[in-house]
Specification:
The structure holds two protein chains of two kinds. By secondary structure, chain A is of the alpha/beta class. Chain A has helices at about 45-55, 75-80, 95-110, 110-125, 140-155, 170-185, 200, 220-230, 235-244; strands spanning about 5-15, 20-30, 35-40, 60-70, 70-75, 80-85, 160-165, 190-195, 205-210, 215-220. Chain A has a six-stranded mixed beta sheet with strand order 6-7-8-3-9-10, with helices on both faces. Chain B has helices at about 55-60, 80-85, 105-115, 120-135, 150-160, 180-195, 205-210, 230-235, 250-260, 280-295, 305-315; strands at about 15-25, 25-40, 40-45, 70-75, 75, 90, 165-170, 195-200, 215-220, 220-225, 240-245, 265-270, 270-275, 295-300. Chain B is globular. The chains are: A alpha/beta, B alpha/beta.
Chain lengths: ~240, ~325
């Protein structure tokens, strides 16, 4: 089930809140088949960038363009193939894990057989199998995150935007979620994640480093680290902090 | 439930738990767990999501009645009433326990009244705690307008207002930046210096590294309990190696290596891999083969390695 690859071109995005620029002239090309990692300190503009890409927020200046197979697309045309997982998710506290999956199946109109297969796969990966009857309101922070991700993954998206999907998730589930994302990447989709984990940043195909609303570095992790003369992103951050 | 053994209680033990079980219907959230925490110790509670960490904490804070077991916190057992326990402990839950619509001052004075502090004590404690967290924002700031890191510090102050002997912090640093996390941990160290007992859960292994001792939990049971170094030594008796690929590797190549019989452990970490072998002899035989593809150096195992090896092997 391969889909035509999608490209997102972000050009000269500025976003001003009051007098503060949250984003200050970001130009970036995101192509399919890569795991794109947006990293940077708190308040760097990561979430704002995601929200602008999704059309949830209008930029003060600049444009976001979606293309499929070289043709420009309206956001409305691509919307059904975009999955978004916000940092703080609104799930239904009274519905169980199982009920959430049923609900999103109906909402997205997923056929029964496909749904069963996806449901089992996702429950296995997230290890939530024995908790399917537990209401979302009684899940731990990490389990709640995993449920949100499962709901987003029920569809087969062409574009996935994930805002800190692994925050509060234990080390093993974190690895499993990444393995899952890599498997999805085999279908040549476009994945964009924000993360505070530097080992995760290193595993991205492309890393985009935001600082105070500006894109200060972008590229393949190894090249980027070599250019900055550091061994890891942890070191890169320490070095940049020391400089500022 | 309590076989009142107060004579044996010594003042150096802050938390004592024996054969604790908590059941929800047929599901054992906590299953015959025993451990104790020394006074002034920073005790880390680690485990997969849903392992029973929060449930254990809720029992220790007097919020949940166990099905079985003996629990004593700061010299108080449940037989003396839950209120007696509550006055000795502070609790910062996973979700920040501040009211978003109230100011910092309103939040703290509300907490003070719940804790039945008189005005003079409250004012003194508030000042002490603001000095402690080095807080310099106006007190009439609405909590919603604070950054995650600042909220978390004010939350901590609120949980310490009544000067508890033991403080339970349930994932206090989830969702805040690395800089805020390191600031928060410098506060935890200061608490320990003041002989406070800190009981903390986290999914960040760099934080776990800073604990005096760590318990690793899975499915309601404690799998391992020791100092960070002790755990590393016992879980990985053989050296830990870092494999840095000379050329990018395909997924198939990585999978093949991960299952190679020589390794007891082979896991990706960022661009590199951490690996430990079963025997020195076995390793020496295959070493040249791997050295062609990787730059290899010996490292100390990380707690993340320990976590994965302990919790995973239990699954298998």
């Amino acid at each position: 089930m391969s889909q035509m690859p999608v490209t997102i071109s972000i050009h000269g995005i500025r976003k001003i809140f009051g007098t503060n620029p949250a984003l200050d002239g970001v130009t970036l090309e995101l192509s399919s088949g890569f795991m794109h990692g947006v990293i940077g300190p708190e308040g760097a503009g990561k979430t704002t960038l995601l929200r602008i890409i999704l059309g949830l927020m209008k930029p003060t200046e600049g444009t976001v363009e979606f293309q499929r197979g070289g043709e420009r697309l309206d956001f409305e045309a691509i919307r059904p193939s975009v999955a978004y997982m916000p940092q703080t998710q609104s799930l239904y506290p009274d519905l169980s894990i199982s009920e959430h999956l049923d609900f999103f199946k109906e909402l997205y109109g997923i056929p029964d057989d496909l749904f069963q297969e996806k449901r089992e796969e996702l429950l296995q990966i997230t290890r939530l199998g024995e908790f399917v009857q537990r209401p979302a309101g009684q899940l731990s922070g990490g389990m709640y995150k995993k449920l949100g991700l499962m709901c987003a993954l029920l569809r087969s998206p062409a574009v996935m935007l994930l805002d800190e999907p692994t925050t509060g998730v234990d080390p093993i589930s974190r690895r499993e979620l990444w393995a899952l994302l890599y498997r999805l990447l085999d279908q040549k989709i476009l994945i964009l994640v924000t993360t505070a984990y530097m080992d995760e940043a290193e595993r991205c195909g492309r890393v985009h480093l935001l600082e105070q609303g500006k894109l200060v570095a972008t590229g393949e992790p190894r090249e980027l680290l070599a250019r900055e003369e550091v061994r890891s992103f942890d070191e890169l951050f320490l070095k940049r902090n020391a400089r500022s | 439930m309590n076989f009142s053994s107060s004579e044996t209680h010594d003042h150096e033990t802050a938390v004592e738990v024996r054969n604790l079980s908590v059941r929800f219907g047929d599901f054992y959230a906590v299953n015959r767990v025993s451990f104790s925490v020394r006074r002034g110790e920073t005790f880390g509670f680690l485990g997969a999501n849903g392992a029973g960490k929060t449930t254990t904490i809720r029992v220790l804070c007097g919020l949940l009645r166990p099905a079985e077991g003996y629990v004593r916190v700061a010299g108080v057992s449940f037989d003396q009433g839950e209120q007696a326990v509550k006055s000795k402990v502070g609790y910062m839950s996973q979700k920040f326990t501040l009211y978003d619509d109230l100011t910092i001052e309103e939040n703290l004075s509300f907490t003070a009244s719940l804790r039945k502090l008189d005005t003079a004590t409250y004012m003194r404690r508030r000042q002490e705690l603001f000095d402690f967290i080095a807080f310099d924002r106006p007190l009439n700031t609405i909590v919603r307008d604070l950054s995650g890191g600042t909220k978390q510090q004010v939350s901590l102050a609120a949980s310490l207002l009544h000067d508890p002997e033991v403080v339970f912090l349930d994932e206090p640093t989830a969702g805040v930046t690395p800089a805020s996390r390191s600031r928060f941990w410098s506060l935890i160290r200061k608490l320990a210096e003041n002989n406070k007992t800190v009981f903390v859960t986290t999914h960040y292994m760099d934080e776990a590294e800073q604990c005096d001792r760590i318990a690793l939990m899975r499915e309601g049971k404690i799998l391992a309990l020791d100092t960070p170094d002790g755990l590393k030594r016992s879980i990985f008796p053989m050296p830990m190696l870092e494999f840095d690929p000379k050329e990018p590797l395909s997924f198939a190549e990585i999978s093949e290596m991960a299952t190679h019989e020589v390794f007891m452990f082979f896991e990706p970490y960022g661009l590199r891999f951490h690996a430990s072998f079963r025997s020195e002899d076995g390793w020496e035989k295959v070493r040249p083969f791997f050295e062609e593809k990787f730059t290899i150096r010996q490292i100390k195992p990380s707690l993340e390695d320990v976590f994965i090896q302990t919790v995973e092997s239990e699954v298998a």
